[in-house]
Amino acid sequence: MKNGIRWVTPPIILHWAQHLRSTPAHEHDTNNRAEEVAEWEYVPEGWSAAHSDPRIKGWNVDSILNVYRAKWPVFVKQLEGTGPFGLAHESDLSTRTDPIYHNILMSYAYALSLSSRLKNEISLLDWGGGIGHYYLISRALMPDLRIDYHCKDVPLLAEYGQKLFPQAHFYSDEDCLKRKYDFVLASTSLHYSRDWKAVLRKLIGAASTHVFITQLPIIHRADSFVMLQRPYRHGYDTEYLGWCLNREEFLREAAESGGKLIREFVTGLEVKIQGAPEVSEFRGFLFQVHEA
């Protein structure tokens, strides 16, 4: 679990070339590196690669926080008003009308509204929630809903998120799992845990009603495998490993952990991973759970 902390944070989930329209000056060096190597690559040796390659630093690095901080004012501004929700904090934030991003956030809106039905207040655990992006998104989607927000992420991001939202609760360890939540969210984060099955069981166990695992890289024919992402084009001076999960295996583990699937979502995102046996697509899964 100590190693797993490095991987828990929302990833950049697509070849953003078709979405990025400008490149900040501070990203030039990392972009040059990105042009030399594939951004996504199949890793047949699995998670052992993290011990042999010093470039695999995970998510607890300054460059990621620096990018988040630089984009934060624009992200906050984009959520204001009555415009569409077609934006993503992982992108360059040049538009709020991207249909894929809109699909992702409207899927989340459905899950949030279902979990908060007939309630004025809910408790929410955001597993791998960065510096609190989904806290603002949730408040923009449902401004009349009071949210007791709890976020788990790597130390650098959790510390900064707590400064942004002193009324919320940020964790860099698993103390967040010592209580129950009305709604548990894991957006682009579960597959960055080496022991994803154990984490899935804990997330389902922490929910009193609903768990939403979304933006999860899914394959249908091949066995689950490990991939490497080199996100230099986004200004991140790091590399990290993650799973592409076989859909049937994932759903079987969720069911055995107490999660009843009530809705599956497609995001429209696909990733072609160099050397991989199958193209990965990102999906979402909303589960209902019942307290013992």
SSE blueprint and pairings:
Layout: H1 28-34, E1 40-42, H2 49-52, H3 62-78, H4 99-115, E2 121-127, H5 133-141, E3 146-152, H6 155-164, E4 169-171, E5 181-187, H7 196-205, E6 207-219, E7 225-229, E8 240-246, H8 247-256, E9 260-271, E10 280-288
Parallel strand pairs: 2-3, 2-5, 3-4, 5-6, 6-8
Antiparallel strand pairs: 1-7, 6-10, 7-8, 9-10
Mean pLDDT score: 89
Q: Report how far the terminal alpha carbons are from each other.
A: 25 Å
Question: How many DSSP E strands?
Answer: 10
Which percent range fits the helix content? Answer: 25-40%
Strand count, sense and barrel status of the largest sheet are: 10 strands, mixed
Strand coverage percent: 25-35%
CATH homologous superfamily name? Vaccinia Virus protein VP39
Large-scale geometry: globular
Core attributes:
10-stranded mixed sheet, alpha/beta, disordered N terminus, 292 residues, 25% strand, 29% helix, Rossmann fold
Short description:
The chain is α/β, with parallel strands linked by helices and 292 residues long.
Please characterize this protein's 3D structure.
The protein is of the alpha/beta class and 292 residues long. It has one domain: Rossmann fold. The chain contains eight helices and ten strands. Strands 1, 2, 3, 4, 5, 6, 7, 8, 9 and 10 form a ten-stranded mixed β-sheet that branches. The N terminus is likely disordered.
